[in-house]
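pinging the channel bc i need a second pair of eyes. not urgent but kinda urgent?? the chain im working w is below, pasted from the shared doc
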Amino acid sequence: MTTSDQKQSQETSEWSEYRLRQLVEKVEDFAIFITNLEGNIETWNIGAERIFGYTAEEAIGQFERIIFTPEDRANNIPELEMKIAREKGSAADERWHLRKDGSRFYASGFQTALYENGNLTGYAKIARDLTERVTLEEQLQSANTDLELKIQKRTSELKSEINKHKKSEEERTLLLSKIVSIQEDERKRISRDLHDHLGQKLTALSLTLELVKQKCEKDELCKLIEQAQERAKEVDSELSFLAWELRPATIDEFGLEVTLEDYTKEFSRHFQILVEFNSRGFKRKRLLPELEINLYRIAQEALNNIAKHAQATNVSVLLEKPDNHIVLIIEDNGVGFALNEKTNRSNRLGLVGMNERAVLIGGKVEIESKKGKGTTIYARVPLQFTNEEDS
C-alpha cells in the first residue's frame, strides 16, 4: 500500500470514528457511556445526562456504581456485570437504577467488553429507561384486579338483594339473570375500554419503536430496540387475552361454536396446554344469546380452573347436539380429586357458579373426578335456536 493510500485509509477511519462519536454523543433516548478497566466512567453522552441526571462533568471519573441502587451495590452487581462481560463478551440485564436526585427507574441495560489489539481496555454500557413499560404493566394488572373486585362487589350486592326479596324460585332465577346481565354489560364495557385506550397506547409505543429502529445504525442499539419491541408485543398479547376473557367480541357476531373454537386456541397458546375442540350437529346455526353466553362462561370457568389447579397437559372440549339438548363436555388429564373430600373443592372449581349459569338456561352441570385420573365437567341444557323452525 502506498503512503497516499495509507493516509487516505487513516483519514477514512478517523472520519468514521468521528461520525460514530457524534452519533453516540447526540443520542437522547439511550444512555451510552464507556468505563475503564476499573469501572470508572470515561465518556458520558446526552442520553446518559437525561436519564441519570448527572452532567458529563459530574459523571466522568466516577465509578459506575453511582447509577446502581444500594441493594445492587451491596451485592456487587456492577462488578459482576463487568466479570460477565469479560468472560462472555457482553452482559444484559433489566433492573432498577438510581438517578442523581435519588429517584429510581426501571431500565434495560447492555454492557460489552472493549478490546484494542486483542487487549481488554474497558467497557461500554447502553441503557434505556423502561419505566413507562413497567408502569403500563402495573396499570394493566391493577385494572384487572379492580375489575374483579368491582364484579365481586356488584355480584355480592345483587345476591344480597336476591336473599332479601326471594319469594319463589322463579323470582330468584329472574334476579340471578339480572346479575349475569349486569356482569356481561360491565365486562363488555371494560373490555372495550382496555382495547381502545391501553391498546392505542401500545400501538403508539410500537410505532415509535419501529421508527427508532429504522434510524438505528449500531448493532447494540438495534438489539435493544428489538428487545423493547418484543416486550411491547408481550404486553399487547396479555392485554388482548385479558380483553378476550372479559368479553369475546366474536360471540355476538359469530356465535358460541366459533367463539369456543377461537377461545380454546388462544387458551392453549397462552397457557401452553394442548386443547382439542370438536363440535357436532350445529352446522353453524345460532343459539339463543342467553344460551351462548352462559355456555361460554361455563367453558371459560372450567378451563381457567384447569389452568390454575389441574396440572393438566391435555384438555378436550366437546360441544354437541345429541337430541333436543346441548351438551358441553370439558375433560382434562390432570391431578383430579376425590369427590367425597370434605373440602371447599366445589367452590374452588367454580361448580356453584357454573351450576347457577346452567340453571338460568334450564340445565345442570355435573362433575366426575378421581385423584390422579383427571376431571370431567358435563353441562346439559335444553336446545333453543334463534329461530324455532331451525331446531
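so The first strand starts at residue 31 and ends at 35. and The chain is about 55% helix and 20% strand. — does that match what u expected or am i reading it wrong
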